[in-house]
Amino acid sequence: MEQHKKQLTTQELYVRKHRLHHRTIGLLRLIVFVLFLGLWETCSSFGMIDSFFFSSPTLVVRTILTLWTQNNLPLHIGITLTETLVSFLLVTLISIMAACLLWFCKGFSEVSEPYLVILNSLPKSALAPLFIVWLGTGMKTIIVAGISVAIFGAIINIYSGFQQTGIEKQNLIYTLGGNKWQVFSLVVLPNGIPNLLSTMKVNIGLSLVGVIIGEFLAARRGLGYLIIYGSQVFKLNLVISSILILCLIAFGLYRLIQFAEHLMRKHMHLA
Amino acid sequence: MSSPLLQINDLSYSYHSLTGETYALSHVSFQIQPGEFVAIVGPSGCGKSTLLSLIAGLLTPENGQIVCTSSRIGYMLQRDHLFEWRTIYQNVCLGLEINHCATKEYLTYIDMLLKEYDLDAFRDKYPSELSGGMKQRAALIRTMALKPDLLLLDEPFSALDYQTRLQVSGDICQKIRDANKTALLITHDLSEAISLADRILVLTARPATILDDIGIQLTTTETGPLAARQAPEYGSYFDKLWKELTHGTT
Q1: Is residue B74 less than 8 Å (CB to CB) from chain A?
Q2: Quick check: B66 contacting A, CB < 8 Å?
Q3: For B1-72+150-250, which CATH superfamily applies?
Q4: A77-122: per-residue pLDDT in tens?
Q5: Which end of chain B is more exposed for a tag (fewer CB within 10 A), N or C?
Q6: Together in a domain, A12 and A111
Q7: Contact B99 A175 (CB under 8 A)
Q8: ipTM
Q9: What per-residue confidence (pLDDT) applies to A7?
Q10: How far apart are CA A81 and CA A68, in angstroms?
C-alpha cells in the first residue's frame, strides 16, 4: 500500500514538472513577443529609429484598421489565401500522382531523375516572368507560380518515401498471392503516408512563397501586391503591416496542416 | 511412399552484380513428402533463404527445376511484418483480402485460429500493443488463413527472446503438425532443428549443396521442445550436426 502511494506521488510529480515546463516555455514566448513590441514602440517614439522607415506597433495597428475599413483588406487576404490553398491542393494532387507513376515505371523514374533534380534546384522565381508572358497577369499565373515552387521537391520527397518501403513487406504481399498494384495499395502507400504528411507541411509554406512571388509581379490584388505597391509609393507602414499579416497566415496554414496530420496519424494508429 | 509434395531437381542459383557473380546454390536436389516436417541447417549466409525464396516463387531458378504439386504455399518470415496501421484481425485477413476470398468458410477458419492461438481477445488491438510472441502467432495465422499445403518457415523464431522462442516454437510446430501441414523450416539453431523436425537437411557453405540428409527419431513420451532435448538420441544428433557444420564433411 505504502509502495503504491509513493508511486502515485512520483507520477504526480512528473506530471507537475511536465506542466510547469510547458507553462514556462509559453510564458517565455509571450515575454519575447511583448519585449519585442515594447522595444520597437519605445525606439520609434523616442526617435531612436525612424518610424517612416521602420514603422511602429501603433502605426501598424492603425494601418491595418484603415486597410480593413477603407481598402478592402479582407479581399486581399482572401485572394492570397485562396491562391495559396488552390496551389497547395494542386501540388499535393499532382505530386502524389507523379510519385505513383515513378514508382510503377522504374524506367521512367530513372530517365526523369536528372531533370527533376535540375528543376528542383532551379530558383523558381526566375520562371515567374515567363509565366506572365505565357499566361498573362491574373490568378492563373499566380497559382502556377505557387505550384512551381513546391512541385518538384514534393515529387522527389514523396517518391523517395515510397521507395523506403521495406522489401520484405513487399515480398509478404507477393507470397500471399498479391500483384504489384496490391503491393502499392496495401503497403507502399500506407507506409508512405507519414512522409507524405510531412512533405505537405513543407509544401504549404512553399506554395505561399510562390504565390507572393507571383503577386509581386503580376497582381492587382493580394498581400504580395500590397507589399510591392507599398514599397513603390514609400508607404512602409503598409509593407510592414502586410508582412505581419503574412506571418499570421503562414503560421495559421502550418497549424492547419499539422492538425490534419494529427488526425490522420490518429486514424492510422501511428505514433 | 506417396508422391512427393515438393521436388527440387538440380537447382542452382547465383546473384549477379557488376563486380562479379556470387554462387548461392549449386546442384541442390531433394524431395519432401506430404506431412513431413523438414528443417534446413547450414552455415550463415549459405543460401538457405535463397532456397526458400526460389520455392516461394520470389526468385526464378537459373538452372534446375522446382516441382510442387500444390500451388498453395505459405511463407513465414523472420520478422512478423504485421502492418502497424491495421488491427490484428485486419492483418490476419490480409491474404483473404488480396485473393478476394473472404468467404464465410475462410472467415470462420480465421475465427477458429484466433481462438486456438489465444489471440481472440486481441483481434481489435494494433500490433504495437502485442508482445513479440503474440505477433509471431498472428503472423502464423495470416499465413495459415489461406490454408496452404506447404509452409516455408524462414527462421520464424529468431527475432524472439530465448524463453518465448522455446515456448512459441514448440507451440507453433505442434499446431502445424496437428493441422497435418508439410513444413520446411530454416534455422541456424541445431537444438531447434533436432527437437522440431522429422528430417534435417544439412547444407554446405556457399555455394550451398546438400551435405547430409538425416532422419530424426527421438524416443520421448512427451512432445515439445524441452522433452525432445531430454531424449537419449538428442546428444548424438547434435554432435553429428555440429561436426558436419564445422568441418563441412559428413
Answers
A1: yes
A2: no
A3: P-loop containing nucleotide triphosphate hydrolases (3.40.50.300)
A4: 999 999 999 999 999 999 999 999 999 999 999 999 999 999 999 9
A5: N
A6: no
A7: no
A8: 0.86
A9: 65
A10: 16
